Each structure stands twice: as structure tokens, then as C-alpha cells.
Amino acid sequence: MSGYSGRDAVIVGAVRTPVGKGKANGALHGVLPADLLAHSLRELIVRTGVDPVEVDDVIAGAVTQVGDQSVNIARNALLGAGFPETVPGTTVDRQCGSSQQAISFAAQGVLAGAYDIVIAAGVESMSRVPMGSSVLPGSDPFGLDMAARYPEGLVPQGISAELIAAKWKLSRTQLDEFSASSHEKAAAATKAGLFDNELAPFAGLSTDEIVRPGTTVETLAGLRPAFYNEAYAARFPQITWEITPGNSSPLSDGSAAVMITSGETAKRLGLRPLARIHTTTVVGSDPLYMLTGVIPATEKVLRKAGLALSDIDLFEVNEAFAPVVLSWAAEVGADLNKVNVHGGAIAIGHPLGASGARIMTTLVNALEQRGARYGLQTMCEGGGMANATIIERL
């Protein structure tokens, strides 16, 4: 999707819960994921004033669709939020980019005339539904043909992050400096109230729980490598084991929701468009270096949009691991002063299925606060993929 075609897709509302620790002692652990998503959906309706009977569909991202997050959580959450039974819902999985993909699907539906009003959302309760718990003992989600294609075997994301750090020669100090900066920016944004407009406090949590003010490179330097493995060390002798809990995104709980309409519908209902979804794309990339898809995704979305890197005022690049953003910046030539200006997932958290919508909510508000025009969001995804989206503030 790119360019302007007469009918446009605009964001008229965006909201998220604060992000909680994805652990049993986290503030949102006691909340069922369907209720966590229902809260963002309900709050989005309150803030926009749209009658939910007019919503054509709810498309929600969730990665680990098992247990508390199974059985089409989008539909369950919208019913829990009090939407009319006539409103449908569907749940999508593009790994970490699930709710960014939901936004793309929603925008494409609006542009095609299939929707007038649609909600793209996402949720993940990593404290209640642990990452990887959908892979049952004895199961093989990859298949024999894929194993034959990659006979040496693929690797977990933490090892991919180590491979990226080694390939781009990123030192532990560089990774920790970037990570400390993420906490510093998120703490400053929280203190200045820059998240207030996007947050829907819930379960006694009014700000992001994981942000650690005062985080320093020195404190991060004391953390041990998180993914050291003798077999991988023998296979990949170039790895120097730089990835720690401090320069990785933490386990997190949260939800977010974005309302997308046609420009005509927004005008009819008296809604103020916050941004136009200008261009979307998705790419596949090397599944061994699975987190580098943000590089070709950024290049592709700029090409499709007919824009240069210099046209983009703000970037949001998901901080799954510090080397993802640093290798991306090195390759595309982006100014890190324009990247994740309110902090990123290393500080705020990465509730997998919710992160795309969470980041979009933050990006829309950051553009508004700075009076900026173009924002570009991109996220790496498991299996070697990445979404990229350009929005234009209106």
C-alpha cells in the first residue's frame, strides 16, 4: 500500500495500557489477557465517542495463542468490552509484528472499501502465557522440509542477536549505552507527562512498570550474558556473548488499540484524523539473522512511499535487542536522535502481540507533540520478517 488514492485510511484514536512486568509479581499478572485487551478496546470507544455498532471489524495481534490467549482473543475481548454481538473479530500472528500487521490489514481494508471503521489492536500477557508455551512437547512446528532446507538448524532469537552484534562489531559498551539511553528517555518522557495522552491506567498501574530511572552503563555492565550455550559457541566462534537482560527487551504484559477509518467517515462522524497511514510493507529476511528484516523493510517502504530517509521526522524501531536498532541505523544511515525518542522496548517493555499497536500509539502522539510530519515504524519478527509503516500527521 502506498501513496494517495482518493480514499485514505486515517488514525482517529490510539490508546494503550501501561506495560507491566511479564512476571508473577507484575502489576497486570492478575488480569486475564482477554480482559487486558478489552480494557484498551473499551477506552478507545470512550475516547473517540464512536458507537461500537459502527465498527466493521476488530483485528488483534497475539503471538502465543494458547491457554488464556486462545480461541480468537479478538472476538472474546470485544464482547467483554461490551461491543454489540454484531461486531466480528479476528486474531493474527506475525510474531512480534502481529499488531503492526493488524494495522496494515485494517488500513488495506479501509482503502479497499471493505471497512469504514476498523480497530487494529494487540495483546500479550507474557506472565500468564509464557513465550513458547504453544509448542507442545513432541511437536514440530517447522516440518521436515524446512529442516532439510536448513540442515545446520536455525537458532533462538537471542543467538540471532549475538550473531548480529558480532557481524556489525557492536561492543558490549555500545549495546549498554544504547540501552541505558532507552531507560533515560522513557523515564524523562514519563516524568514530563508525554505518555499521559496515550495511557489508559488499569489494575492500579498508571505508568509503565519496567522503566528504570537512573539506569547506567556501569550497572548494566554487571549483568551476565543471557544466552551463552556451549553448542552455539562451538558452531559460531565469532560470537563474543554480549547480549544480557539489560540490553534485551524484558518479558511484558500489555495491550493497545488503534481506530482506523476512511477520511470520509471521519468527516461524517466529526472525528479528527491524527495521522494518515501513508505506506505499509512487509518483507521476509534471513531466518538465521532473523532480526535484520528491519533494514530491507525500511528501504522498501521508503521506495514505495517515494520518500527519502531525510523526509522522516521520527523513527520507531522495536528494541527487541539493542543490536537490532544499532545495526539498522548503521545500514540505513538514520540519525539515532530521531529514533525511539521516548525510549523503546528495552525500557518500556515488549508485550509481543501488543507491541506494534503500542509503538504506533506512541509514534502518533510523539508526532503530535513535536508538530512533526512523517513517522516510520518498523519491527523485526521471528522467523525472519519485518513490517514497516509510514504515517503522516494531519
Automatic annotation (TrEMBL):
Annotated keywords: Acyltransferase, Transferase
Domain of life: Bacteria
Domain Thiolase N-terminal: 10-262
Record SUPFAM superfamilies: Thiolase-like (SSF53901)
Keyword Transmembrane helix: no
PANTHER family xref list: ACETYL-COA C-ACYLTRANSFERASE, BLR7806 PROTEIN
Family in the record: Belongs to the thiolase-like superfamily. Thiolase family.
Protein name (database record): Acetyl-CoA acyltransferase
Organism from which the protein derives: Mycolicibacterium fluoranthenivorans
